[in-house]
Amino acid sequence: MANATFYIVKPDSIQASETGFEQYILFLAQHFAKQGAKLYIQCQDKAHAERIAECFWQVEPEHFMAHNLVGEGPKYATNIEIGHQGVKPTWNRQLVINLADSETTFANKFNEVVDFVPCEEKAKQLARERYKIYRQAGYHLQTFEIEHK
User: A single Gene Ontology molecular function, please (predicted)?
Assistant: First the structure.
Protein backbone atom coordinates (compact mmCIF):
# COMPACT_ATOMS: atom_id res chain seq x y z
CA MET A 1 0.00 0.00 0.00
CA ALA A 2 1.21 3.49 -0.82
CA ASN A 3 1.88 5.87 2.08
CA ALA A 4 1.61 9.63 2.43
CA THR A 5 3.19 11.28 5.44
CA PHE A 6 2.41 14.88 6.33
CA TYR A 7 4.83 16.77 8.55
CA ILE A 8 3.22 19.60 10.50
CA VAL A 9 5.40 22.69 10.77
CA LYS A 10 4.76 24.38 14.11
CA PRO A 11 4.87 28.21 14.13
CA ASP A 12 7.49 28.28 16.89
CA SER A 13 9.78 25.71 15.25
CA ILE A 14 13.06 26.35 13.46
CA GLN A 15 11.44 24.92 10.33
CA ALA A 16 8.90 27.76 10.27
CA SER A 17 11.62 29.96 8.72
CA GLU A 18 12.60 29.51 5.07
CA THR A 19 16.20 28.63 5.93
CA GLY A 20 15.14 26.24 8.70
CA PHE A 21 12.67 24.53 6.39
CA GLU A 22 15.28 24.14 3.63
CA GLN A 23 17.67 22.61 6.18
CA TYR A 24 14.94 20.17 7.18
CA ILE A 25 14.49 19.16 3.53
CA LEU A 26 18.22 18.41 3.38
CA PHE A 27 17.92 16.40 6.59
CA LEU A 28 15.03 14.34 5.18
CA ALA A 29 16.75 13.83 1.83
CA GLN A 30 19.89 12.60 3.57
CA HIS A 31 17.83 10.33 5.85
CA PHE A 32 15.97 8.69 2.95
CA ALA A 33 19.03 8.51 0.68
CA LYS A 34 21.02 6.72 3.41
CA GLN A 35 18.25 4.11 3.43
CA GLY A 36 18.80 3.61 -0.29
CA ALA A 37 15.68 5.41 -1.49
CA LYS A 38 15.60 6.93 -4.95
CA LEU A 39 13.86 10.19 -4.22
CA TYR A 40 12.36 13.05 -6.13
CA ILE A 41 11.91 16.54 -4.70
CA GLN A 42 8.92 18.29 -6.28
CA CYS A 43 9.29 22.08 -6.15
CA GLN A 44 6.83 24.84 -6.98
CA ASP A 45 8.66 26.12 -10.08
CA LYS A 46 12.06 26.14 -11.76
CA ALA A 47 13.45 28.96 -9.59
CA HIS A 48 12.39 27.09 -6.45
CA ALA A 49 14.01 23.87 -7.75
CA GLU A 50 17.24 25.73 -8.45
CA ARG A 51 17.19 27.27 -4.95
CA ILE A 52 16.72 23.84 -3.34
CA ALA A 53 19.49 22.38 -5.53
CA GLU A 54 21.77 25.19 -4.39
CA CYS A 55 21.08 24.24 -0.75
CA PHE A 56 22.57 20.82 -1.48
CA TRP A 57 25.81 22.53 -2.55
CA GLN A 58 26.01 24.57 0.66
CA VAL A 59 26.58 21.62 3.01
CA GLU A 60 29.91 20.62 4.48
CA PRO A 61 31.87 18.30 2.14
CA GLU A 62 31.39 15.29 4.42
CA HIS A 63 27.58 15.75 4.17
CA PHE A 64 27.46 16.22 0.40
CA MET A 65 24.71 14.29 -1.37
CA ALA A 66 24.83 13.67 -5.10
CA HIS A 67 21.80 15.27 -6.70
CA ASN A 68 20.65 16.75 -9.97
CA LEU A 69 17.91 18.84 -11.48
CA VAL A 70 15.59 17.08 -13.94
CA GLY A 71 17.29 17.01 -17.33
CA GLU A 72 20.77 17.50 -15.92
CA GLY A 73 23.34 15.04 -14.67
CA PRO A 74 24.00 11.42 -15.66
CA LYS A 75 21.72 9.41 -17.95
CA TYR A 76 20.03 7.56 -15.08
CA ALA A 77 20.31 10.52 -12.72
CA THR A 78 21.41 10.41 -9.11
CA ASN A 79 19.55 9.06 -6.09
CA ILE A 80 18.18 12.57 -5.47
CA GLU A 81 16.48 14.37 -8.32
CA ILE A 82 14.93 17.82 -8.06
CA GLY A 83 12.14 18.99 -10.33
CA HIS A 84 9.10 21.20 -10.48
CA GLN A 85 5.61 21.35 -11.86
CA GLY A 86 5.60 20.64 -15.57
CA VAL A 87 8.60 18.25 -15.59
CA LYS A 88 8.84 14.57 -14.70
CA PRO A 89 11.53 12.52 -13.00
CA THR A 90 13.86 10.89 -15.50
CA TRP A 91 13.52 7.37 -14.08
CA ASN A 92 11.78 5.29 -11.47
CA ARG A 93 11.60 6.87 -8.02
CA GLN A 94 10.07 5.34 -4.91
CA LEU A 95 9.61 8.46 -2.84
CA VAL A 96 8.62 12.06 -3.48
CA ILE A 97 9.12 15.01 -1.14
CA ASN A 98 6.45 17.48 -2.22
CA LEU A 99 7.32 21.16 -1.75
CA ALA A 100 4.74 22.42 -4.25
CA ASP A 101 1.55 23.83 -2.78
CA SER A 102 -0.99 22.28 -5.13
CA GLU A 103 0.54 19.66 -7.43
CA THR A 104 -0.49 16.13 -6.47
CA THR A 105 -1.20 14.48 -9.83
CA PHE A 106 2.29 12.96 -9.69
CA ALA A 107 1.51 11.18 -6.43
CA ASN A 108 0.11 7.97 -7.90
CA LYS A 109 3.55 7.31 -9.44
CA PHE A 110 5.25 7.00 -6.03
CA ASN A 111 4.93 4.45 -3.22
CA GLU A 112 5.86 7.04 -0.61
CA VAL A 113 4.88 10.70 -0.46
CA VAL A 114 6.24 13.20 2.05
CA ASP A 115 4.27 16.43 2.29
CA PHE A 116 3.99 19.32 4.70
CA VAL A 117 1.40 21.35 6.57
CA PRO A 118 2.90 24.87 6.79
CA CYS A 119 2.06 27.48 9.42
CA GLU A 120 0.36 30.02 7.16
CA GLU A 121 -3.43 29.58 6.95
CA LYS A 122 -3.78 29.60 3.15
CA ALA A 123 -0.96 27.06 2.85
CA LYS A 124 -2.66 24.91 5.51
CA GLN A 125 -5.85 24.86 3.46
CA LEU A 126 -3.91 23.77 0.36
CA ALA A 127 -2.30 20.99 2.44
CA ARG A 128 -5.77 19.84 3.52
CA GLU A 129 -6.79 19.64 -0.14
CA ARG A 130 -3.71 17.56 -0.96
CA TYR A 131 -4.48 15.31 2.00
CA LYS A 132 -7.97 14.65 0.60
CA ILE A 133 -6.55 13.86 -2.84
CA TYR A 134 -4.06 11.37 -1.39
CA ARG A 135 -6.85 9.74 0.64
CA GLN A 136 -9.05 9.45 -2.45
CA ALA A 137 -6.10 7.90 -4.33
CA GLY A 138 -5.93 5.15 -1.67
CA TYR A 139 -2.83 6.26 0.21
CA HIS A 140 -2.38 5.24 3.84
CA LEU A 141 -2.09 8.62 5.59
CA GLN A 142 -0.17 9.66 8.67
CA THR A 143 0.84 12.97 10.24
CA PHE A 144 3.74 13.97 12.48
CA GLU A 145 4.77 17.21 14.07
CA ILE A 146 8.32 18.16 13.12
CA GLU A 147 10.56 17.82 16.13
CA HIS A 148 13.94 18.25 14.45
CA LYS A 149 16.23 20.72 16.18
Answer: DNA-directed DNA polymerase activity
Q: Which residues does 105 contact at the CB level (< 8 Å), separation at least 6? A: none
- Rounded CA-CA distance 95/58 in Å is 23
- What backbone torsions phi and psi does residue 80 show, to the nearest 5 degrees? -120, 115
Mean pLDDT of 98-105: 82
Q: pTM of whole model > 0.90?
A: yes
The 10s digit of each residue's pLDDT in 108-128 is: 788 899 999 998 899 999 999
Q: Domains (ranges, CATH) in the chain?
A: 3-145 (3.40.50.10110)
Alpha carbons 91 and 131: distance in angstroms, whole number: 25
Whether 110 contacts 94, CB under 8 Å: yes
Distant-in-sequence, close-in-space partners of 33: CB < 8 Å, separation ≥ 6: 39, 65, 79, 80
Number of Cβ atoms within 10 Å of the Cβ of 26: 18
